[in-house]
Amino acid sequence: MRYVDIGGSGLLGSTVALGCMRIASLDKAELVNLLGVAVDAGINLFDHADIYGGGRCEEVFGEAFRSVSVRREDVLLQTKCGIRDGFFDFSKEHILASVNGSLSRLGTDHVDLLLLHRPDALVEPAEVAAAFDELHAAGKVRAFGVSNQHPMQIELLRRHVRQPLVTNQLQLSVAHTGMIDAGINVNMTSPGAFDRDGGVLDYCRLHGITIQAWSVLQYGQIEGTLLDAEQFPELDRALRDTADQLSVTPAAVAVAWILRHPARMQAIVGSTNAARVASLAAASDVELSRPAWYEVYRAAGNRLP
Ligand SMILES: NC(=O)c1ccc[n+]([C@@H]2O[C@H](COP(=O)([O-])OP(=O)(O)OC[C@H]3O[C@@H](n4cnc5c(N)ncnc54)[C@H](OP(=O)(O)O)[C@@H]3O)[C@@H](O)[C@H]2O)c1
Fold first, then answer.
1. Which of 33, 83, 198, 280 is most buried when burial is the number of CB atoms within 10 A of its CB?
2. Membrane-spanning residues where (predicted)?
3. What phi and psi, each to the nearest 5 degrees, are found at residue 16?
4. Ligand 1 pocket mutation pick from 14, 18, 22 by most atoms within 8 angstroms of CB
5. Residue 29: per-residue pLDDT
6. Which is nearest to 264 in space by CA: 13, 9, 10?
7. According to the 3-state scheme, what is the secondary structure of 117-156?
8. Is 52 a catalytic residue?
9. Which residue has the CA at smallest separation from atom 12 of ligand 1?
10. Going along 92-245, which residue ranges are E strands?
11. Which H/E stretch holds residue 175?
């Protein structure tokens, strides 16, 4: 397993991290096994949000974590706040209340990273700054970041927030490549040229912000996994061929494809299956060649200009 210094914070996070959005479906023994297998594979970052399972995911994690043979200080617990029922809320009051709820459910006195989950149109950056100051001073949060944010939204926050914003968690898979397409198709009239994110990939690289890729095996937002999907026969073939050559699974190749990018991202994998998580962790030690990376990209239906 390789590790990355997340946004220069000094927090070393595994390049393959475990997303905990779906773990509420597991019983305690299954979850303890999943977490143990993840830790044994070198995974040290666990991604949460206050809303996953309506709080249940943090709660079952907190209960199971005590039975896993790993010390709290040897893992990074990350959570997110700001999504509420029918609206987004980056108010100071909500951020503080959300973190207190997460700490209590996770059974810990601090989280290592706190991310603002989705942009709040009504954000008051000075309020976010005040909340972050209070959480940092109280030792409840070590480092801060955002998720699904545009460069200008991050710039606005950076005017007020005193702590560095060390990560931006964004949707990225080989079948969801907008942030890469736009950079390849500059000034072309092809659909890939469409800039949906304000150049967020290069912005994060310029500012040393670590991108954490979410839904690394999905296409669309809720459509399903890109593995064996009838829409992607060529991708399926390319992933299988590369997997055979590298002696890993096709899913691990899809993750290795993300990790091959020189932005040095983290991939948040969301499987609840211990064997799958172990095989996905192997992606961290696989280096795709430049031709293989482009072949997988093209096999997903992306065109080069
Ligand atoms: N910031 C955001 O807005 C945002 C949004 C969404 C997610 N996230 C984070 O990203 C994490 C990952 O998201 P995700 O769960 O959508 O990621 P994912 O890793 O792309 O998908 C995991 C899902 O794919 C299924 N799957 C089917 N075949 C698989 C295979 N061969 N290998 C692995 N998985 C397979 C898994 O089922 P099994 O469980 O049966 O293996 C699971 O339901 C979440 O847990 C959350 O922490 C963040």
1. 280
2. none
3. -105, 120
4. 22
5. 97
6. 13
7. CCCCCCCCHHHHHHHHHHHHHCCCEEEEEEECCCHHHHHH
8. yes
9. 270
10. 111-116, 141-147, 165-171, 210-214, 218-219, 224-225
11. none
Gap between the Cα atoms of 98 and 92, Å rounded:
10
Determine the pLDDT at residue 224.
87
Residue 223: per-residue pLDDT: 79
Class of domain 3-299: alpha beta
Give the Å distances, CA to CA, from 203 to 151, 210, 277.
Answer: 6, 11, 30
Contacts for 130-137 with beta carbons within 8 Å, 24 or more apart? Answer: 130/92, 131/92, 131/95, 131/96, 132/95, 132/161, 132/162, 132/163, 133/162, 133/163, 134/92, 134/96, 135/95, 135/96, 135/99, 136/163
- What are the sequence ranges of the domains in the chain? 3-299
- pLDDT tens, position by position, for the chain (305 residues)? 999 999 999 999 999 999 999 999 999 999 999 999 999 999 999 999 999 999 999 999 999 999 998 999 999 999 999 999 999 999 999 999 999 999 999 999 999 999 999 999 999 999 999 999 999 999 999 999 999 999 999 999 999 999 999 999 999 999 999 999 999 999 999 999 999 999 999 999 999 999 999 999 999 877 789 998 888 999 999 999 999 999 999 999 999 999 999 999 999 999 999 999 999 999 999 999 999 999 999 999 999 99
Measure Cα distances from 187 to 4, 55, 119, 182, 193 in Å: 33, 44, 28, 9, 7
- Per DSSP, the residues of 15-68 read SEEEE-TTGGGS-HHHHHHHHHHHHHTT--EEE--TTGGGGHHHHHHHHHHTTS
Quote the pLDDT of residue 195.
Answer: 94
